[in-house]
Design brief:
Helix content: 25-40%
CATH superfamily: Divalent-metal-dependent TIM barrel enzymes
CATH architecture: Alpha-Beta Barrel
Shape: globular
Largest sheet: 8 strands, parallel, barrel
Number of helices: 9
Order of helices and strands: EHEHEHEHEHEHHEHEH
Number of domains: 1
Distance between the termini: 7 Å
Structural class: alpha/beta
Strand content: 5-15%
CATH topology: TIM Barrel
Number of strands: 8
Length: about 270
Amino acid sequence: MPRFAANLSMLYNEHEFLDRFAAAAKDGFQAVEYLFPYAFDAQELKQRLSDNGLQQVLFNAPPGDWDAGERGLACLPGRESEFQAGFLKALAYAETLNCLRIHVMAGLKPQGADASVLEKTYIQNITWAAAEAHKSGRDVLIEPINTRDIPGFFLNYQNQAHNIVQHIGASNVKVQMDLYHCQIMEGDLAAKIRQYLPTGRVGHFQIAGVPMRHEPDLGELNHPYLFDVIDEVSATCGWDGWVGCEYRPARGAVANGTHDGLAWLHQQG
């Protein structure tokens, strides 16, 4: 069975953020991920992890002005200094939280921008980030995101991401393979897991039901089958990463809304 991490940005929204760690641990999660830690002191987050016996397995580097609609800086020419400062901040948090993976959002394509310039900027920024992350043994993850949830996002397809990882050639640059996004853009998930997981370029999985992004037992995907595929391939290639539960509970932010939707997880045991 894969190892599952609770995404605290989406799960347990019936609790204040700092109380979500305890709620996740109570439900049996041993690891957490979330979008951004920067609204909280890193030592406070570390204490919540320690108090609840949790590992921090992933968070995102600063994305620019999120509230204004920015979704990453990595592909944006002229924002390199801001990108670098943000990534160094992420590395400082990762050191405190003992987190080995930092996801770098690519960003939105500016209208009329030259695609080749965006790609060159993106590759340069990820290459720089990889070198900085290597100093402390951390991975930089890049994630294809579907154009329905984030129209105009720079990175959309698995082959696009894997080609970039191969081009950069750094062992600590990997793909964050979100099966929800992949199903919407491409489908054929089992074949893609079998294609890409043995390459060593997949650093993390994420899951959600399709199309509504609710629990993985709701919607068109057969997640138990996909988990079996991950197990099967992992047994031959030695992959030992995490599967992030990045979905919106169907019951919403009501009392026990997340807990009551976890039957799918307990059936994996």
